[in-house]
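User: Thanks for the earlier help. One more: DDE Tnp4 domain-containing protein. Can you show the sequence and predicted structure together?

Assistant: Of course, both are below.
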Amino acid sequence: MDLFEEDDDFEIIQYLNYQRRLYTVHERINHMLAWDDHDFRVRFRLGKNVVRNLLEYIEDEIASQTTRNNAVTPINKLLLTLKFYATGNFLITAGDFIGVSKTTACLIVCDFSVAIAKLRPIFIRMPETESEIRDLQLRFYQITRFPRTIGAIDCTHIKIQSPGGPDAEYFRNRKGYFSLNVQTIACPGLKIMDVVARWPGSCHDQTIFKKSRIYNKLISGYWKNSLIVADSGYANTQYVVTPYLNPSNDIEELYNESIIRTRNPVERSYGVLKRRFPVLSFGSRLKLETTQAVIVACCVLHNLACDNNDLEPPELFNMDLPLNEEFSLREDHEPEVGNARKQLTEEYFPFLN
């Protein structure tokens, strides 16, 4: 081997040593002890008791199989995910907060979002038994005496980055940005009873509803004569009632006032949900499948917070959240069999004192 070959090998070895980064373990703070209840809620948008309860459901599924190589503990993984939801920021920021790399933060957010979303059957559910249906109808009736109601339905747009590919433009909504059109049904306590987070932003609310499991249950008589209240973007049918666009008498005015106030919980639930988890307001830069899991996971966390009487998220300092933009443009709907709105204005509201 001549001298030039030895010099080349030496330079290659030096280059490889330069490229190899040292293994570094960052300091990880115990955030459950470092902050009082108020400061903890400001940073993670949920109280400590809610976080502990959630961890009991998913700890076995997401715990590391070994403690070697300074594995991240389940509680730190959960807090990293909540921090990402709470800021809607870059993954590297959430990773630095817990003391892990951007790559590790990405894996944790993806895995935890899926794990939390799997709790949907437990925390997001429509009434099933006769007693649950009667109780829900009574709670809606106590708002403005609107009868037979078991839910308020609407859609909201969650901003995403362009998914790319030949179908990307399907995700561009009427406002010109890419989004998912997410349908939810809410109850008077602002809990979300159903969520559909798979439709692109260009889809109309009525289209999403007619393709949903809830629609099939309604038309099959699963909830008997129960009603769902909606805005004018939906078709007025035997099981879905909407306001009059141009009320012509006092009865229709009274009906409009009652239904608008009755469907108010679904609007308020969007406000609380997006204030609690700004990632839903600022938009997601994750993969489409992960973004869908994040949306469902945030709904699960919202309901878990409601179960713990944590209905009002703490204020966000120096952060202006985008307003919840509505897309309830009226479209021509196909004629439906039956008309609950007409029945109510003829047989119920004229006799309402």
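User: Great, one quick takeaway?

Assistant: The radius of gyration is 25 Å.
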